[in-house]
Amino acid sequence: MKSFAILAAGVTLALATGACGTNSKSNVLTASGLDPENFIGERDGKATALYTLKNGNGMEACITNFGGRIVSLMVPDRDGQLRDVVLGFDSIAAYYPENNETDFCAAIGRYANRIDHGRMVIDGDSIQLPVNNFGHCLHGGPTGWQYQVYEAEQPNDSTLKLTMHSPDGDNGFPGNVTANVTYTLHSDNTLSILYSATTDKATVINMTNHAYFCLSGDPETTVCDDILQINASSFTPVDSTYMTTGEIAPVSGTPFDFTTAKAVGRDIAADDEQIRNGNGYDHNFVLNDRETDVPAAILTSPESGITLTILTTEPGIQFYSGNFLDGTIKGKKGKTYGQHAGLCLETQHYPDSPNKPQWPSTILRPGEKYESYTEFRFTNE
User: Quick one: pLDDT band at residue 290, thresholds 50, 70, 90?
Assistant: First the structure.
């Protein structure tokens, strides 16, 4: 694990020397073929741009401050050729919800995943959040942070710090919150994400990145042949509205057993109530370890030879198999995203934790600091 203190100190020192981004006219395309000019815009009076991180191995991450979204992620395959392993769009306008209402590769807040009927109680105060998904509040509500513009500072070629100032009452959530998302591209082909937040009133915080991974680099195929292992002996079942029931159930003997690596598609259409409820996989897995030297999940594309290893300090990971991608979305380079074109492995606290006190708490109080750390580590063979 890269030390929180070291990361924070490095960012502070670099910011003191001035930020540099790509918020200027340029005819130079990124390694993934993106034109930075297509990301220069304004949303709700705030400027948007594309920021490019690089390391010495040729790996590249392109990120926009609209929603803190990873737009492209170029990773070397077994032959050393770079492949773009995430889904996304070629322009900032395509990310706007009136054009495509997606969470592609966004920094999610305030609360990743669902809160039951948008209701919760904090210190005896009943709070009603807006509902935007099967009667529940999903990913912070209809104008969650994935649809807002973060402040951006790029201190060097490998680091991007994004800041969100979320006012009291933002999508119904209490407290003035300042949150940071720091992306760092390391020399070992790891993209790390450090989340932090403070508040002036008791609230809930549960941040994640909603990356849609396609390790083959070809989203017009599916991820069903990719090999997945999840370090989780149990998961949290859901009802037909994708809401957790409160149960923690063993994965043994079910389609949810990824303790031994298997193809994503092997049991994706199994005759199983939970598979039917999720329309495939759309479930939180209860991780056996919260240590960043123990992989939470390992995903491999047999086609490209690229392996993604995820490490996190979070207690859970949401595995979503791209069930609602339906072929109506055209992404980068005009490619169509059909069902299972990508999959998500979202490190998180469990869904609806504010209403399930037996689960790890997501409450953040004044004087406390929320911190969460995740690594996406890429290798090839």
Answer: confident
Instruction: Give the residue numbers spanning the domain of 244.
Output: 227-355
**Helix, strand or coil for residue 368?**
coil
- Counting the structural domains of the chain, the total is 2
Q: pLDDT tens digits for 207-224? A: 999 999 999 999 999 999
Among the listed residues 319, 316, 312, the one whose alpha carbon sits nearest the alpha carbon of residue 372: 312
Domain membership of residue 50 (yes or no) is yes
Q: Does 346 qualify as catalytic in the annotation?
A: yes
Q: What is the pLDDT of residue 291?
A: 80
Please check whether residue 313 lies inside any domain of the structure.
Answer: yes
Question: Which whole-number Å values give the CA distances from 225 to 197, 229, 302, in the listed order?
Answer: 38, 13, 7
- Token pair in block for residue 256: 């949810």
> 295 and 151 share a domain?
no
**Residue 75 phi, psi dihedral angles, 5° rounding:** -130, 135
User: Nearest to residue 190, comparing CAs of 379, 32, 330, 349?
Assistant: 379
- Domain match, 37 and 167 both: yes
| Each residue's pLDDT tens digit, 23-76 | 444 569 999 999 999 999 999 999 999 999 999 999 999 999 999 999 999 999
Given 60, 136, 139, 210, the catalytic residue: 210
The verdict on whether 210 is a catalytic residue reads: yes
Mean pLDDT calculated for residue range 191-197: 98
At which residue do the structure tokens 């997945």 appear? Answer: 228
Give me the sign of the Cα torsion angle 147, 211, 24, 151: positive
- CATH value at residue 64: 2.70.98.10
CA angle in degrees (0–180, nearest 5) for 75-182-20:
85
Angle formed at CA 210 by CA 204 and CA 216, multiple of 5 degrees = 160
Question: Which one from 153, 314, 346, 375 is the annotated catalytic residue?
Answer: 346
- Judging by DSSP bridges, how do beta strands 344-348 and 151-156 pair with one another? unpaired
Mean pLDDT of the chain: 93
